[in-house]
Amino acid sequence: MLVLRLLLVIGVIAVAVSLAVYLLSGDKRYLRFSWQLIKFTGVLLFVAAVIMAMGRIILF
Q1: Cα–Cα–Cα angle for 15, 52, 16, rounded to 5 degrees
Q2: pLDDT tens digits for 24-50?
Q3: Cβ-proximal residues to 7 (8 Å cutoff; 6+ apart), any chain
Q4: How far apart are CA 45 and CA 42, in angstroms?
Q5: pTM
Protein backbone atom coordinates (compact mmCIF):
# COMPACT_ATOMS: atom_id res chain seq x y z
CA MET A 1 0.00 0.00 0.00
CA LEU A 2 2.85 2.35 0.74
CA VAL A 3 4.17 1.91 -2.80
CA LEU A 4 0.77 2.78 -4.29
CA ARG A 5 0.47 5.88 -2.14
CA LEU A 6 3.99 6.98 -3.08
CA LEU A 7 3.26 6.49 -6.79
CA LEU A 8 0.02 8.43 -6.46
CA VAL A 9 1.69 11.34 -4.65
CA ILE A 10 4.51 11.52 -7.18
CA GLY A 11 1.99 11.41 -10.05
CA VAL A 12 -0.16 14.16 -8.54
CA ILE A 13 2.89 16.37 -7.95
CA ALA A 14 4.08 15.84 -11.53
CA VAL A 15 0.65 16.70 -12.96
CA ALA A 16 0.37 19.79 -10.75
CA VAL A 17 3.80 21.02 -11.82
CA SER A 18 3.08 20.46 -15.51
CA LEU A 19 -0.28 22.25 -15.24
CA ALA A 20 1.39 25.15 -13.41
CA VAL A 21 4.01 25.42 -16.15
CA TYR A 22 1.21 25.37 -18.74
CA LEU A 23 -0.62 28.18 -16.95
CA LEU A 24 2.57 30.25 -16.73
CA SER A 25 3.79 29.69 -20.28
CA GLY A 26 0.59 29.01 -22.23
CA ASP A 27 2.37 26.31 -24.24
CA LYS A 28 0.02 23.46 -25.24
CA ARG A 29 2.82 20.87 -24.97
CA TYR A 30 2.64 20.98 -21.17
CA LEU A 31 -1.11 20.41 -21.21
CA ARG A 32 -0.63 17.38 -23.47
CA PHE A 33 2.19 16.18 -21.21
CA SER A 34 -0.01 16.47 -18.11
CA TRP A 35 -2.74 14.42 -19.83
CA GLN A 36 -0.18 11.72 -20.68
CA LEU A 37 1.01 11.75 -17.07
CA ILE A 38 -2.55 11.26 -15.84
CA LYS A 39 -3.10 8.32 -18.20
CA PHE A 40 0.18 6.56 -17.49
CA THR A 41 -0.01 7.15 -13.74
CA GLY A 42 -3.46 5.56 -13.75
CA VAL A 43 -2.20 2.57 -15.72
CA LEU A 44 0.83 2.20 -13.46
CA LEU A 45 -1.32 2.37 -10.32
CA PHE A 46 -3.74 -0.19 -11.77
CA VAL A 47 -0.94 -2.61 -12.67
CA ALA A 48 0.68 -2.23 -9.24
CA ALA A 49 -2.68 -2.81 -7.51
CA VAL A 50 -3.34 -5.94 -9.59
CA ILE A 51 0.11 -7.32 -8.80
CA MET A 52 -0.38 -6.67 -5.09
CA ALA A 53 -3.87 -8.23 -5.16
CA MET A 54 -2.54 -11.31 -6.97
CA GLY A 55 0.16 -11.64 -4.33
CA ARG A 56 -2.45 -11.59 -1.58
CA ILE A 57 -4.69 -14.11 -3.38
CA ILE A 58 -1.81 -16.49 -4.02
CA LEU A 59 -0.75 -16.36 -0.37
CA PHE A 60 -4.21 -17.45 0.85
Answers
A1: 5
A2: 999 999 999 999 999 998 898 899 889
A3: 41, 44, 45, 48
A4: 5
A5: 0.76
